[in-house]
Amino acid sequence: MIEQAAPLRDVAIIGGGCYGTFYASQLEAACSKGKLxxxxxxxxxxxxxxxxxxxxxPFPDRTLVVAEWAEFLRTFLTADPPGPGLPDDAVVPSxxxxxxxxxxxxxxxxxxxxxxxxxxTPPDLPxxxxxxxxxxxxxxxxxxxxxxxxTHCVEPLTCPMIRAPRTWEMGDxxxxxxxxxxxxxxxxxxxxxxxxxxxxxxxxFGAAEIRASRLxxxxxxxxxxxxxxxxxxxxxxHGAVSVLRLGER
Length: 249
Prior knowledge:
Blueprint: E1 10-14, H1 18-32, E2 40-45, H2 51-55, E3 62-66, H3 69-76, E4 90-92, H4 100-112, E5 118-121, E6 131-134, E7 140-143, E8 158-159, E9 164-165, H5 170-182, E10 187-194, E11 196-199, E12 202-206, H6 207-221, E13 227-234, E14 238-246
Parallel strand pairs: 1-2, 1-4, 2-3, 10-13
Antiparallel strand pairs: 4-12, 5-14, 6-7, 7-14, 8-9, 11-12, 13-14
C-alpha cells in the first residue's frame, strides 16, 4: 500500500529531458491516483521544444517554464514562505544538472556583500567514499556505491544491491568532512540540499531546507572574516559538493 505524500505547493522539475519527463509523469500519476496533492508542476527547460513538451500528455496543473535554470532558481528560491501549516514548494533536481544550488548561494552571497571576494572553489580534500572524483567544473562528485545502482532507486533502508541495511548517510559524511576542512582553514556548514523520495519514485528537496541552507551561508559570512562554506546537493547515497569561499569583508 502506497501512503499519501505530504501536500505541496509548487514543484519545480529541473530539466525537460528524459529525467524531467519521467519525473513529471510520475508526479501526475500520483496526483491522478489521489496519492499526492500539489498546486502546480513547473517543468523548467531553456528549450520550448524539449522532450517533455512533445512526450507528455496534457495535465491541467503543469506549466512548461522556458528559462535558463539558474535564472529561474533565482526567482523561485527567493519566494515568500507559506503560512504555518500550509504546503511549501519543492525542487526535483536532475542527476545531469550542474551544481546549481552552489551557484545560487554564490549569487546570494554576492548580493549580501557587494565588493567582497566570493567564489566557488574546488574541494581539494577527498571525502573518502568509494566513488570520489573532482569534476572538470570544480565540483566533487561522491557516492557510497561502488556498483551501478538501479535506475530511479529510492534509497530504501535496505539497499537493493547489497541486500543489507544501508549504514551510510551522505549528510553525516559531509558534516564530518566540514570538520576536517575546518582544521585547515575556517569552514562552516554543510549547507545541504537533500533529495528524499516523496512519491512514485520521485525525489526532491523542500523549500524549508533551501531557506535553512541560505541561513547557514548568511551566518557564516556575518562576522566579515574570511570563511569557507561547504555546499552539498545530496541524497542518502550520492552527492555533488562545492566550497563557497567568502573573502574578508
